[in-house]
Write a structure and sequence with these properties.
This protein has 8 helices and 15 strands. The chain has helices at residues 12-22, 37-47, 63-72, 90-95, 108-142, 146-154, 208-214, 262-269, and strands at residues 3-8, 28-34, 51-55, 79-84, 100-103, 166-171, 174-179, 183-189, 192-197, 200-205, 220-224, 227-230, 234-239, 245-249, 254-256.
């Protein structure tokens, strides 16, 4: 990951010294520098840095005031590391969610510890952005608020329509969207559903009854107490010698039809 970095300090020698220190870290790409808060605002708007090393005591506007002005405007902030000769502003800096607060002259070990945290913080930020974009898209599709989408996802419910067009499958902090049209079949493993789609098996925490209610019965048929099949994927219905039936999918997978489901399956498929 390349971390786009901006240095803001009214002292040219301080900027140069920090540039030399940061050059030893190949993950950091210095995209610009600024000598005042005004220049910093312009640079942040134009360059969109991921990380800003920001001096506090600068003429015209302090680094603290600069960040406060961005917070007041509800603008998205880069990660901020305050770099200063004064320790008086530490509490205020962390109230503004600064990543770190480094005292001049900067200790090399202290700088190294700071840089180690930056990568993980950016990964968390990027993950949060991806989830926000997904929630926004789902909300627009369903015509509901993002809060409602989050509530439906937390309950494992379909996000859009009476029948689901896609399933939201949560795995830890990530949510995968599986198009219902891509599902071949579903089988149960206790309170977990194994969703087989395009050769991949996704695990979803839900009962068979709950999942069946989400799927359009014109497209999906339950053939067993623990199996639902996409009708478009069925290649053959095989009558076994024991009077049982077997569904053979176009993929070659074979699924047994439960005895209590035989008549319904025959009516739908024969």
């Amino acid at each position: 990951m390349t971390i786009r970095t901006l240095i803001v300090d009214d002292e040219p020698l301080a900027r140069q010294g920090l540039k030399v220190r940061l050059a030893a870290h190949p993950d950091l790409e210095l995209v610009g520098e600024a000598g005042s808060a005004k220049e910093a605002l312009q640079a942040m708007a134009a360059l969109k840095p991921d990380l800003v090393f920001l001096d506090i005591q600068m003429p015209g506007m302090t680094g603290i005031e600069l960040i406060e002005s961005l917070v007041d405007k509800d603008l998205e902030l880069p990660l901020v590391v305050f770099v200063t000769a004064y320790d008086d502003y530490a509490v205020k800096a962390f109230e503004l969610h600064a990543l770190d607060y480094l005292l001049k002259p900067i200790d090399e070990e202290r700088l190294g510890a700071c840089l180690e945290r930056i990568g993980s913080q950016l990964e968390q930020r990027d993950q949060a952005r991806r989830e926000a974009r997904m929630l926004k898209a789902l909300a627009e599709l369903a015509g509901v608020s993002m809060d409602e989408v989050q509530q439906r996802l937390s309950r494992g419910e379909a996000v859009t329509g009476d029948y689901a067009s896609q399933l939201a499958i949560r795995d830890g902090s990530e949510v995968s969207l599986v198009a219902v049209a891509d599902i071949d079949w579903v089988d149960a493993a206790g309170d977990y559903m194994c969703i087989h789609a395009k050769g991949i098996t996704h695990i979803m925490r839900k009962t068979m009854k709950e999942l069946e209610a989400m799927l359009d019965p014109r497209r999906f048929v339950r053939i067993h107490r623990s199996a639902i099949v996409n009708r478009e994927r069925i290649g053959q219905l095989i009558n076994l010698a024991s009077a049982d039936y077997l569904v053979r999918l176009k993929s070659g997978d074979e699924l047994r039809v439960g005895r209590s489901y035989r008549e319904k399956v025959k009516q739908l498929l024969l």
